[in-house]
Amino acid sequence: MSAPGAVVAHEPAPNGTGVVAQFILALICAGYGVGAALGWGSPELALIMGDFGLSAGALVAAVSCFLYARTSPPRLRPAWLLFALSSLMASAGNAVWGWYEVVLDREVPSPSIADLFFLCFAPPAIVGLLVLAKRPVSRAGWVCLGLDAWLIGGSLLTLSWSLALAHTTRVQGESVAPAALSLAYPLLDIVLVSMVLALHFRRSATNRSAVNTAIAALALTVLCDTLFTSPLLRESYRSGQLLDAGWFAGSLLLAYAPWGARRPVESLRPPRAPRPSSPVAGSLAALTPYLAAAVCTLGILYNVVEGRTVDRVVVLTGCTVVLALVVRQGIMLVDNIALTHELAQKENHFRSLVQGSSDVIMIAAPTGVLRYVSPAASGVYGREADELIGSELATLIHPEDLGRVIREVRRFLTAPPSEEPTTRIECRFRSGSGEWLNVESTVNRHQGGLIFNSRDVTERVRLQAQLQHSAEHDPLTDLPNRALFTDRVRQALTGRRSSDRGTAVLFIDLDGFKGVNDRLGHQAGDELLVQAAGRLADSVRAGDTAARLGGDEFAALIIGDGGADQATREGHVAEIADRLRLTLSQPYRVDGNDVRVAASIGVAFAEVGITPTDLMRNADLAMYRAKAAGKDRVELYVPQMQAEVVRRTELAARLRTALHDGEFALLHQPVVNLATGRIEAVAAQARWRSAQGMLFTPAEFLRSTDDGDRSAELGRWLLEEAVEQAAERDRLGHRVPVSVRLSARRLLDRSLPGGTVEALLTRHGLPSGALIIELADSDPRISFDDLEERLITLRRLGVRIALDGFGSGHAAINALRKLPVDMLKLDRGLIEGIVESARLHKITSGLLRIAGDLGLQSVADGVDAPEQVLALRAMGCTHGQGMAFAGPLDEYRLRRALVRDDFPLPGGIALPVLAGGSLNPHTGSNSETRVPPA
């Protein structure tokens, strides 16, 4: 369907109110015509209806046009006011005519006041038609409009003069007034008819229905006036005859014109492009001057054929008509020359723009055949324009894009042009080399067909695809990133297999990857990640997705096939996960070295109604459970994991509040000399009593939070409280050292204020040897040189160093070889089975022998049974700490124990087997302590 056809198809029909009004109008006019044809039943009624009836109809037209003029646009208001005045003159003329015939019951004199009113009917109507006409845009247009009116008027005057007016003039003889009055009516009607004919093809498009109806009403009135002025009809005319029905219908039609049935519909219709004029109307408008000259010629020929002498009026009028035609043709010739020159310039300008444009301009017929292709096609498509002309557009578009292009073109053609003048289509176009180019086209309507303004956007599409790929893939491994992986999970959960519980998400973390970065560098770490990504991508199926989420974390989406029961599918996914673990745990060849890392994998299965975020979170929780359970393993998600996370999160939140609200308490556990039973040191321990009444040990709440900041803050609080309380006890006479457990990282933390331990000792006045720092198992990433330097500085201040957890860490022997320590603190794990296990008994005995050979004191942690005390003392352990003597004590109970200063030992007091001295600083000098070589 063409664009104009689409608009016409959507044009609303007149409403019911307009049809009713037209029916009532036709009924009234038909009733008046029947009455006039039958003589109205009596002469008196015929006179009343022929005079005052016409006056009433004209008055209705005057009032209607006046009321419409008040609401019409300013440009049209004068025209309708003039029509109202014209109808008012006709109403007044008929009223005067009726006054003579009906009221006074005598003949209407000639001339009379009625003639004056009737003569004033035409001029306002003529001016009103001029106002409604489409105004010419140039002086030549105004001149041509006047010439066209004279050509029509002069031709009609020639013809009417030849037929009737000359006879009327001769009949009137020498009486000037009757002759002038007889000629005035036909001459004014001729002018009015000329304007109606001349302006019929020049009327404005605004409210076209009202204008057409008004022109029809005036034309009907002029026709009746013409019949009335003919000598034959005028001699026999009486009021109330059939001729009055024409005048009456013309008046009612003019009254109906501004309130026509189509006007409400048009006022509600959205504005649209003007409809092009029909070829017939254009041809009649162009032939109007020639038709007028032909009518003039017929008037002269009539006189010649009848053998009459050609009247001077006919000759003069004919000459002026011919002269007007010649002048008009000259003006049109000059205008045509100017228009031809302007058209040539615009055509050259258009041709230059089209040929010089880098875009390809194509014009397609409604059938899809290309009628025109600009020369730019050779540079854009690699095909000459002549080669493309005549080919069908559908054969040049990629088959996958053809359906979409056809649907868009059909939709565009059915849309109103005013609402959517253009559209944009992007598709693939076949080039001369056979490749497919991405082409973007702006489409416009053109004479039922289409104009395509196309450009090659292949590079832009490639760049967009590259940017899209970069946005959705990891730059190092080229695997899908977190965003794309999340989208794939969402598609799997919302697709046709959304209820398949065989769909699973695997979260994978490489254990030991950080050590590879630290030992071999980040470049080697990147190479290992690339190899791991390749193994992962090769291990999943074609329909699955492998992704890198960041760092050394990977993920895999396993799509369920729905072909087996739930247990079988879950078992299949578990096998895939274990196979991935083994594959990723194989040695990697990086920079000539074999590097090994392990893989901890968490698996979570899809459930009905689960969201992608929850499914990925479940897999992440399972992966962290695998790492916490020893790494290099596969863990399946269970709901208890989420409950554990909630508990840990709540605990961490309460811990942050407890640190600031002072809910932590400091307890001390006595360190007892196994030979004498005396308390020679106390070990500071933090306890947190929560608002719920639960008492947490440091290991419990720090393991639950995994918060490095909270751990550091708690360590600072523990050290400061322990030093402050030890100083207070020293002032009260309880001179017993206090041991505080600190990590090596805490001692070397550069972000802490310089000299924290030193500042505490100075501020609280703690004597030399009263502070023991239990050094936890050192981090392998910490330099032993820096740690040794820090420990030597502290020992110069009288701080003694204990190596905590000896016998459990892999770095204990290395630390013992390099670091300056004063004592060894045996790990609780060795003490728990020392009585039952002969193997542990030998290991512990050997460690104590090493301590004795190095001259170091030894402290056994976790001594909870008397049998353990006896065994340790027999092995040569010097000190013990545990429930066999006392648990952690508050300050009040600690001072009572210090006053007593004696714990009963099983088997009585025994002399130490191995030399080690005392923990109490007052039994010996710190400088006398033997220090192993660094």
Description:
By secondary structure, the chain is α/β, with parallel strands linked by helices. Helices cover 56% and strands 13% of the residues. It has an 8-stranded mixed beta barrel with strand order 13-14-16-17-18-19-20-21, surrounded by 6 helices. Helix 4 (77-103) runs antiparallel to helix 5 (113-119), helix 7 (139-172) packs antiparallel against helix 14 and helix 8 (176-200) runs antiparallel to helix 9. The longest helix has 45 residues, at 312-356. It is elongated, with a radius of gyration of 57 Å.
Task: Give a brief rundown of this model.
This protein has 934 residues and is an alpha/beta fold.
Write the layout of secondary structure elements.
Layout: H1 3-9, H2 16-37, H3 43-71, H4 77-103, H5 113-119, H6 122-132, H7 139-172, H8 176-200, H9 208-229, H10 231-235, H11 242-256, H12 262-268, H13 279-305, H14 312-356, E1 360-364, E2 370-373, H15 377-380, H16 385-388, H17 399-414, E3 422-430, E4 436-446, E5 449-456, H18 458-472, H19 482-494, E6 504-511, H20 513-520, H21 522-539, E7 545-550, E8 553-558, H22 566-584, E9 588-590, E10 593-595, E11 598-605, H23 612-628, E12 634-636, H24 639-661, E13 664-673, E14 679-689, E15 695-696, H25 698-705, H26 708-731, E16 738-742, H27 744-747, H28 756-764, E17 771-775, H29 784-796, E18 800-806, H30 812-818, E19 823-826, H31 828-832, H32 838-853, E20 857-861, H33 866-875, E21 879-881, H34 891-900
Parallel strand pairs: 11-12, 14-16, 16-17, 17-18, 18-19, 19-20, 20-21
Antiparallel strand pairs: 1-2, 1-5, 3-4, 4-5, 6-8, 6-11, 7-8, 9-10, 13-14, 13-21, 14-15
Helix pairs in contact: 2-11, 3-4, 3-11, 4-5, 4-6, 6-8, 7-8, 7-13, 7-14, 8-9, 9-11, 13-14, 20-21, 21-22, 26-28
Protein name: EAL domain-containing protein
InterPro entries: Biofilm_reg_signaling (IPR052155), EAL_dom (IPR001633), EAL_sf (IPR035919), GGDEF_dom (IPR000160), Nucleotide_cyclase (IPR029787), PAS (IPR000014), PAS-like_dom_sf (IPR035965), PAS_4 (IPR013656)
Transmembrane segments: 19-40, 46-68, 80-100, 112-133, 140-163, 183-201, 213-233, 280-302, 314-334
